[in-house]
Design a protein that fits this description.
Distance between the termini: 48 Å
CATH superfamily of one domain: Response regulator
Helix content: 25-40%
Length: about 525
């Protein structure tokens, strides 16, 4: 028997999801690496150091695998005394994550589910996972990873782990700066970094504030000097393109303090290497963003993702997105472009009062000022106020989490549209945003790169437009999906795959402030650190 090389092998497995024909979504290339990979890698290494373990960390992104043969390398690996597979999942990936956990458990492997999808799940789903014997983590994992690793080493994983409250970002490890070869199957080479967590706004369709809170504070923000140093190191390692994944970068507690250091760093790198930093950031569309454009450009921002969502004032009011002023969208977009910054946004389709005509008009308006628009079908995301209202009012017609990915209408219907009309409007939006003749498309007029030049190859945003147009007849995410294989995946969704559990009003009351149903469940069933974070 070969000598064991490691105490612990940690496999980080990013699951995919299923197409409507039950095949697994897999691609030759995707837009970018999932940001969770380097984040969890760093967390695993820190936990290993804390407990004096010699660990190895391996990544698997199922969206860029061929079939599921890669599972064999997890199951047959014999280079460590113990092993565990972490499966972080978004809500719509839960069915595939459970299918993977079942396969691994049948093969005698230790596995833990986690991520935002698990944190936002309902109590019936938690009970299902416990019945299946699939351990899972609720909340952020910085303060639970160590206990999970200890339990893996002793072969006694607990049913549930829970991070009570929010972790202190000042103490959290920075994402692992991965070798560039990890990007062999991505169209971009982006190093992702979250400067802060939380958003001060209260949009009804958003679940971010349930995951990360509304308070933007020092404990929920990185140390400025350490963040700038990380960016400089990433640049030196070949990553001139940095994705700052904050949900609202300029509302970060440390945004003002980072302005000058990033401006100085950008100017210094330009002198040393002859090229700029290239940041992709997410920002709100509040009109006072106009005052920040010059600072953002000087920091090195080359592309912004803004929360325009819709030009319909009725919808914005119903969604509690009162900070948006549609009459200012064109001015804001033009101001960014005047400083060489591309403008992108989601274009949300299927709000309650919309009609086919109002959607068509809305998308046509967005196409005039967006360089890149990402169509999304409105979904009542678990954890959001819209989800709770839809459950209470009996408006949900599809409980399968797999279909909550922004490409399917899961409502029984809208006030003025059937689910079929919503889906048709979603598909038509691609042709409006990316017209065949490319007339009036800012991207093709200006020939702007997505995020500058990446190691000798330029990725024009027009290529994304072509991809969006090519696959307009089927569900497609510009940021999440990629170029598919000529022949689809051979993996078929199992007949016993998890398809969600219908909920009633009492099942979602834990979302309401002051209700402790979910907390009582976790206090009774979960392991959690003694100290409650802020």
């Amino acid at each position: 028997m070969p000598e064991k090389l490691h105490d612990l092998q940690i496999n980080i497995l990013m699951p995919s999801s299923y197409n409507q024909d039950r095949t697994l979504r897999q691609y030759r290339t995707t837009m970018m690496l999932p940001p969770a990979l380097p984040t969890l890698h760093a967390l695993a290494e820190k936990a290993g150091r804390d407990y004096g373990l010699n660990i190895a960390v391996t990544h698997f992104n199922e969206r860029t695998e061929r079939g599921d043969g890669y599972l064999g390398s997890i199951i047959k690996d014999g280079t460590a005394r113990k092993s565990v597979t972490w499966i972080p999942t978004k809500s719509f990936e839960i069915p595939r994550a459970i299918d993977l956990a079942r396969q691994l458990k049948r093969a005698g492997q230790q596995v833990v589910l986690g991520g935002p999808g698990i944190t936002l799940a309902d109590l019936k789903t938690y009970a299902f996972l416990m019945e299946e014997g699939i351990p899972f983590n609720v909340g952020e994992a910085e303060n639970t990873a160590g206990q999970i690793i200890q339990d893996v080493m002793e072969d006694r994983l607990k049913p549930v782990y829970w991070q009570r409250g929010m972790v202190d970002m000042r103490k959290a490890p920075f994402p692992k700066i991965l070798d560039l070869k990890e990007h062999s199957k991505t169209l971009t080479r982006l190093a992702a970094l979250e400067i802060s967590k939380g958003c001060p706004f209260n949009c009804s369709y958003c679940c971010v504030i349930k995951l990360e809170g509304q308070e933007v504070s020092a404990p929920r923000s990185r140390n400025v000097d350490e963040a700038v140093a990380w960016i400089e190191e990433a640049f030196a390692r070949g990553y001139s393109d940095i994705f700052l994944t904050d949900n609202n970068f300029r509302k970060s507690f440390v945004y003002s303090a980072m302005k000058e250091p990033l401006k100085l760093l950008n100017a210094d790198l330009r002198r040393k290497y002859g090229r700029d930093l290239s940041f992709f950031v997410q920002l709100d569309a509040k009109p006072d963003i106009l005052n920040e454009v010059d600072d953002l450009a000087d920091m090195g921002v080359k592309m912004v993702f803004q929360g325009y969502e819709t030009n319909d004032r009725r919808v914005l009011k119903l969604a509690r997105k009162n900070q948006n002023k549609p009459e200012m969208y064109q001015m804001i977009a033009d101001r960014f472009r005047s400083r060489g910054i591309m403008v992108s946004s989601g274009v949300m389709i299927g709000f309650w009062p919309q009609t086919p005509d109002s959607i068509r008009k809305d998308v046509e308006t967005s196409a005039k000022f967006l360089d890149l628009g990402y169509p999304f079908t409105v979904v009542p995301l678990p954890g959001s106020d819209d989800f709770m209202s839809a459950v209470e009012e009996g408006r949900i017609g599809n409980w399968d989490p797999n279909d909550y990915d922004g490409t399917e209408c899961v409502f029984k219907g809208l006030q003025n549209m059937t689910p079929e009309q919503v889906k048709e409007a979603y598909h038509e939006s691609f042709s409006v945003l990316y017209p065949q003749e490319n007339s009036g498309n800012h991207v093709d007029q200006q020939k702007k790169p997505l995020l500058g030049y990446m190691e000798g190859r330029q990725l024009p945003a027009g290529r994304l437009a072509e991809m969006g147009l090519k696959y307009a007849g089927r569900p497609f995410h510009l940021m999440m999906d990629g170029i598919p294989y000529t022949h689809g995946s051979v993996v078929i969704r199992p007949e016993d795959s998890f398809r969600g559990i219908p909920l009633k009003s009492e099942d979602v009351q834990f979302i309401r402030k002051g209700n402790t149903d979910k907390e009582r469940f976790l206090l009774q069933n979960a392991w959690y650190p003694d100290a409650v974070a802020a």
